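Propose amino acids for all 396 sites.
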């Protein structure tokens, strides 16, 4: 493993910053303290700072030489609305808020890289350090783009990374093409006619209609979609009724739809609406169908993925750069990749053996209340970012 000595020397101080961020988690578009911390660190290191894109986003600008070329590296900075079960000293101080996905660690890796890049500037061009808010459902990437990210800071490509529990420390995983699914949600309200539970013939019961829809939606996956195409329809909430002896007026179903392509998403949305409307009619009910498209699929570009593989192989060895099996989770780095080329990759977070005394029960998995980022990744991730920036902007 070829780690940069100056980054190793700063590892403890950067880990301290990471733990400070972990102890003070902030939700999407509320990352004021986190943004202040990032901006102060960058400024202290002599890095130009631009603030306000996506409300709480921070962009650091590191220039050197005369080239007009530029590359971007992104870290997400927001936390999740959940309560931490850990009790170590850097556990969340805010009830109902937690860095359970490692964005504190992603931020720390990019800060470590920023400090080295500012000191050494072994490149010709500009490195844009993009600290993005509101990845967890807020679409912060989309909002930064709307606020002019690529107009103010034109870049040839952008790279980002996510820690990945279960992947060994010292390994990276990446693949070209779709790696994360689109994220979409639906709300279906089935309307009937209320009645006494003992006299159902006097009402129109929306519950059987809703139950039929839940089953029928799965035939869209198995009978309308091509078997080689990927898609998920999950009904995750059903709300109805107030008393055991009352036929309810309505039944509300909500859930998520995931696909790797817009074409499959179009199909699933259309068929879900048709099934909902016709099933409701068959049961003498009416239906309101709502479908919201949140994040598009994250699709890595071929050339940039191959570039990243080559750089990472030099850092950890080719055997430790492995293919990434696509996941049906979602990631708003997808918005960046719709605008410019780039690659999103995974860095191994291990199996959780790094966690200190005071952690909660359970595995060290993403979105788990006992999660904690592995600080051993900070020098490795920072080294990877520095080497990518240097290689991309190598003098020609």
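Proposal:
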């Amino acid at each position: 493993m070829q780690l940069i000595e100056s980054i190793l020397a700063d590892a403890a101080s950067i880990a301290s910053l990471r733990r400070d961020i972990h102890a003070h988690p902030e939700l999407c578009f509320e990352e004021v303290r986190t943004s202040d911390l990032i901006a102060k660190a960058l400024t202290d290191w002599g890095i130009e700072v631009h603030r306000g894109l996506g409300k709480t986003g921070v962009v650091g600008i590191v220039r050197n030489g005369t080239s007009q070329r530029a590359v971007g590296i992104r870290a997400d900075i927001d936390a999740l609305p959940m309560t931490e079960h850990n009790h170590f000293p850097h556990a969340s101080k805010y009830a109902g808020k937690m860095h359970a996905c490692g964005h504190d660690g992603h931020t720390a890796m990019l800060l470590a890289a920023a400090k080295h890049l500012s000191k050494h500037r072994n490149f010709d061009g500009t490195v844009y350090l993009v600290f993005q808010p509101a990845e967890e459902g807020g679409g912060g990437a989309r909002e930064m783009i709307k606020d002019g990210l690529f107009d103010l800071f034109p870049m040839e490509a952008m790279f980002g990374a996510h820690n990945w529990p279960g992947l060994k420390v010292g390994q990276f995983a990446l693949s070209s093409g779709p790696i994360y699914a689109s994220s979409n949600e639906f709300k279906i309200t089935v309307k009937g006619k209320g009645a006494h539970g003992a006299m159902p013939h006097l009402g129109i019961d929306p519950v059987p209609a809703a139950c039929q829809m839940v089953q029928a939606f799965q035939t869209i996956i198995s009978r309308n979609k091509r078997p080689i195409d990927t898609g998920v329809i999950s009904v995750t909430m059903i709300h109805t009724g107030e008393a055991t002896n009352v036929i309810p007026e309505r039944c509300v179903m909500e859930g998520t739809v995931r696909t790797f392509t817009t074409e499959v998403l179009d199909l699933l949305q259309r068929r879900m609406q048709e099934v909902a409307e016709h099933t409701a009619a068959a049961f003498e009910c009416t239906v309101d169908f709502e479908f919201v498209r949140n994040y598009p699929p994250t699709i890595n570009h071929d050339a940039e993925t191959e570039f990243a593989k080559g750089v990472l192989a030099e850092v950890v060895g080719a055997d430790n750069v492995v293919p990434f099996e696509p996941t049906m989770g979602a990631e708003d780095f997808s918005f960046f990749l719709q605008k410019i080329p780039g690659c999103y990759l995974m860095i191994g977070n291990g199996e959780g053996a790094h966690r200190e005394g005071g952690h909660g029960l359970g595995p060290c998995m993403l979105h788990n209340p006992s999660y904690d980022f592995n600080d051993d990744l900070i020098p490795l991730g920072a080294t990877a970012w520095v080497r990518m920036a240097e290689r991309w902007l190598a003098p020609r």
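Residues 5-181+297-392 form a domain with the Aminopeptidase fold (CATH 3.40.630.10). The first strand starts at residue 48 and ends at 51.
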